[in-house]
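Reproducibility note. Readers wishing to regenerate the assembly model reported in the main text can use the exact inputs given here. Chain order matters: entities are listed in the order in which they were concatenated for prediction.
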Amino acid sequence: MVSGLTINERQGAIVILVLLAVIGTVMAAAAGRTGDPMSVHGFIVLLFSLAVLAAVFWGYYTPAPDEGRLKSYYDDPSKAGIILAMIWAVIGMFVGDWVAWLLAYPDLTFDAAWSSFGRLRPVHTTGVIFGFGGNALIATSFHVMQRTSRARMPDQLSPWFVLIGYNLFCILAVSGYLLGITQSREYAEPEWYADIWLVIVWVTYLVLYLRTLARRKEPHIYVANWYYLAFILVVAMLHIVNNLAVPVSYAGAKSYSLFSGVQDAMTEWWYGHNAVAFFLTAGFLAMLYYYLPKRAERPIYSYRMSIVGFWGITFFYMWAGSHHLHYTALPQWVQTLGMTFSAMLLIPSWIAAANALLTLNGAWHKVRDDATLRFMMMAAVFYGLTTFEGSFMAIRPVNSLSHYTDWTIGHVHAGALGWVALITFGSIYALVPWLWKRERMYSLKLVEAHFWLALAGTLVYVFAMWNSGVIQGLMWRTYNESGTLAYSFVDSMIAMHPYYITRAIGGLLFLAGALIGCYNIWMTIRRPAPVAESARGDAPLPAALQPAE
Amino acid sequence: MLRTHYRLERKSVLFALAIVVVASIGGIIEIAPLFTIGGTVETDPDMRVYTPLELAGRNIYIREGCYACHSQMIRTLQDEVERYGHYSLAVESKYDHPMLWGSKRTGPDLARVGGKYSDHWHTEHLNNPRDVVPQSVMPAYSWLLRDELKVSDLSAHLKAQRAVGVPYTDDMIANAPADAVAQASPDDDTEGLTKRYGKATQIRDFDGNKQSVSEMDALVAYLQILGKLSGAAHAPQAAQKTAGN
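Running the prediction on these inputs yields the following structure tokens for the assembly.
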């Protein structure tokens, strides 16, 4: 890996890592004096930077790459990113299934603080959203931006900084929850110093993206890049505003958010819903817009639909966050705006989904035969279903039933498993043979097995949660003949038990599929017999992939 | 229209700027007025602040991720009001940095749980929920009884709270560690504490162990104050005002 860096870049890496090691030492020392848990994070930063430093020194005296490298794309960070994404997938999904079993059997804990549901649950959400999803987005964006721009990245150091720095953020996040370090803001739990670190990493990411685009030999920016750009820009905006906080002490982890009460709730769900929009939707639509047409060898169905879908999603989503706060102390005008825009959001969402599915016209026989393409097709279907469900649940009276129940959990997982994870697995199965210059995956049968496990797991999970959610919601609002509430809260909890077990089994199926995927990817990488240099993925893009004139 | 876009997508920086502008509009229109429109948060001149012990308890609630399963926001629906009490008003979480409205009820809402159960019940329940509710799926938090509460840094916590807008006085900040201990030690001198935080301050040995101030003391003190910081929900004109929102 170090062999791809120029001597200057190797020295730059050493400077950055030494600086990081110093920061880690200072954090450990300053927080250690008061016994604050941030000291553990100091040690983690120190060890992390020393480990990467060791790797840089290990490869420091390998010969520097020659000028010939500039004629090819730079894919080492993408390769590392895919492996990291799969590692996080297994961690995040394992913890997810673990907490699912905890809800069915609450005594499966070890009388330890770190192993209770409340601390493990954000490990699951951060592990899958930011660990798995984020690494997959970074890895694929590096790959896609170079191909669609027909330009190599401007340097070799900044992509590594983005990837490795981002993973340091993820490690700080999940280890923090286990230590009890959290802001309690859903999907934005990491504390102030981790947030500042992410801003540094993210700005580097944006600059790298724009610099690569600036070097492009294609006059037009391809639609996948619009989505990646929106993902990077808007996530930066959301992250900064939502995490504004005042630390209790610079030598401690705890901070208090700048906003309180109703304003804080609105800011949090403006963030929360648009993290869904721009992290879990825009970024993955970028994958869909590149890997699906490439794999199907069909041009995108409609340029016009791409444009309308993109700007519709970018504009409408930002209004929708308040549908998380129906019937609360949030002023009703904001709730109404949120509901209205959530309903309208269905239009650009379905345009994007339809554009993907119509692209498959003429290639449906490939969908039948090729599990990789089927992953992507099924992802587009789930995207359409989930966005419909989302708009539906944002309608106030529907939300009065669904909110606070497992229905929300079911909805999120229809999106996260059915859409986000399936498009990611499909893209990775397409990408791995291209990047490692193999003819195909090690075993197509295993891809097939993964597909059916993933689909079965998703359906079992989602149906279980739909059932439990609706039952829960109905039990809470049912009155008996004498006009009093018919069920106690405990009654509704007992009714959930079979569904919690079913859900955990669904999650287990999905996890099993991911493990098979890891094995298959590992065997593909290990297998020798590289194909010729002009691997399929690097062939010039077909002209049809350019925006229609 | 298409031609404009056809030209726009040749300019990367312009395209990026267009994304930022288009994506900012919704958030600005929905969030900014919440800080300026008068009726957004009801006024309550008698609103209490959290005592240092309650604030420490709140931080334990956050640390353990209680918000993942318990909401603190009663919606304006009949069944919720009957189950949990008067619907939540914006003013009641005015000093909540961050708010803990929650998004999921794996367990019941806690917005008005204060005073609903005894301290003893809470302590037993947190120690092992299945001792008092056999069907409960809540984790046991037995270490809260074992771990002593850290009070030494509470002054810094109150100071940071003041920096974000909670009206703690210099007196409150200076005495925060002592006040935290005093609130859980009814046999000691608690005059300063009631002078600073009002006569309604609940001063009890919450966890039933007089030897020390444990994390359990703090968490139970917090749970017992939920829904009691403000009387606005029970004042007739406040209820009308929200209904008109």
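We highlight two features of this model. DSSP finds 17 helices and two strands in chain A. Chain A touches chain B through 106 residues (CB under 8 Å).
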